Every structure is written in C-alpha cells, then in structure tokens.
C-alpha cells in the first residue's frame, strides 16, 4: 500500500513550547535499548513511577505492550523489527510534542533504526539509555523463559543469540545492570535529567 498524496499537516494552535511552559519541565524520549533480560522494562516501570511521583507528565511505551495493539501485525524479521521501531519513533515524536517525557523499552537491536528515531526529534529530545548486561547473565535471568525456548529450537531470530544486537557506541546513559540495582539505575537517570535541566532539582 503506497502513501497517500492527498494529506496535509494541520498545525496546532497550541505550541510545544507553550505545553512545556505549563508543565514546567522539558519533554524528551528516554529510549531504553538492550538485550532481552537486561532490565529495560523493570527499570522503565520504576522510572515512570518516579517521574510521575514528582509531578512530571510522563508515559511509558513497552515493547510487549505495543505488540498487543499498534504493532500486532508485525513479526520479528529484520524488516518487521525496523517497522516496529519506525512506528514507535513516530508515536514518541507526537508524545514529545504533547509535552511528555516518554519512556520507551524496546530491544531495538539496530543502530540505524535508533538513529532514525533520534533524527525525527529536536536536538536533545532523544536520550538513549543502554542497559548493558552480558548475554550469559541475561540468559541466566531469563524472566520470560525465552532463552530456554531459543536453546530448544522453539524460537528463531532471537536477538543476541541467532539475530544481531548492535550495542550503542555513544549513548547518553549507560546502566551496567549486572552491578547497579533498579533503584540505583533510576537514580542515575533522574540525576541526568536534573543536571541537563529536563526537570527541576528534586
């Protein structure tokens, strides 16, 4: 299906800057990337809660949740993974324009796809957070039992095992989740947001 040529972008009478002024904080995408089991979802849940508790307008987009609805027609081929991230990037862009700090938790294995999302946004509106964790530790945790299924031949094209994962080379934040607790990881992100004036000091 081709793109429609009979569409026009309708500008809002409310600007992003006006929303940020009312919210009293900047908007941005906090983009978690890392292997399955590296801690993305767990940390993102606690980060959203911490932001909300400090009166920050925020919303979390989780990889599994999005595949229940918006991206339910996508599989895990390289092409579908690319489209999955493209759609999430577009949704994130709308949320940033709405004035939210948007927390996303997606494996997003390809550097080019993550960079494409960064390019959709204004400078400093994309904060890449790498949940760094060895494959062996992720497999040891295996919270969803996925690695076991991969080793049993029940899942093909699984990131880190039989499909590639391209780790970030210059992320804004690195969380070594083999060392840092969930609480320490959230604290590190909150410190970054304060130091770079996305939110006021807490």
Automatic annotation (TrEMBL):
ATP binds at residues 34-41. GO terms for molecular function: adenylylsulfate kinase activity; ATP binding. Pfam families: APS_kinase (PF01583). Residues 26-176 form the APS kinase domain. Pathway: Sulfur metabolism; hydrogen sulfide biosynthesis; sulfite from sulfate: step 2/3. The active site is at 108 (phosphoserine intermediate). Its EC number is 2.7.1.25. PANTHER family: BIFUNCTIONAL 3'-PHOSPHOADENOSINE 5'-PHOSPHOSULFATE SYNTHASE, PAPS SYNTHETASE, ISOFORM D. HAMAP family: Adenylyl_sulf_kinase. Belongs to the APS kinase family. Catalyzes the synthesis of activated sulfate. This is Adenylyl-sulfate kinase. It comes from Staphylococcus ureilyticus (Staphylococcus cohnii subsp. urealyticus).
